[in-house]
Amino acid sequence: MYRPNQSAIDDPETLRHAMAEIGFAALVTPHAEGIEISHLPVVLREEAGQTVIETHMARANAQWKLAGVRSVLIFQGPQAYVSPSFYPSKQEHGKVVPTWSYIVVHAHGAFETFDGAAELGGHLNALTHRHEAGRAEPWSVADAPVPYIAALKRGIIGLRFAAERLEGKWKVNQHRSAEDQRGTYEGLMGAGEQGVDLAQALASFSVRT
């Protein structure tokens, strides 16, 4: 991934937090005939100091048969249009153009498959808990009939992805002047939920410096 120095994020804790918050990724696996891509919900955990990402897909999806092939999981975070009108420098010299702000994380590695009933059950429970925990009446896998869940498990296969390398890119105008950063922050704060997330990410750079 092209990452100018000011936008590169390599801190593992920051990247793991972003991946866990996003919770959804594109699995990209090249092969002799082309490239397979699947869009999948994920859960993360740490295992012996390594980031392990688990997901599942339909057995009918042939990508799982590429287990062991080096792949990439792409986590696309918040993104938003940035207008030149955000910048005070527009009034000074007019040398500004629109851009796009975004956060993205790439996890490089390979995956293995698992399909044991207990392992799949543990994965589905973890994935469900991750997204139901904050609800007033959280749903659990145990709420559904056992034969129904057993039948669904037979139609999926689990993937366990060992991340060998993580790389992130935070493109939030942190390279611009302090005045234009403030203008970007204020503009993004009015650009919806994703804009607010990006504005807060930009603010974190100001704290560091």
Automatic annotation (TrEMBL):
One Pfam family from the record: FMN_bind_2
Taxonomy, superkingdom: Bacteria
InterPro entries: Split_barrel_FMN-bd (IPR012349), TR_PAI2-type (IPR007396)
Name of this protein: Negative transcriptional regulator, PaiB family
Species: Celeribacter halophilus
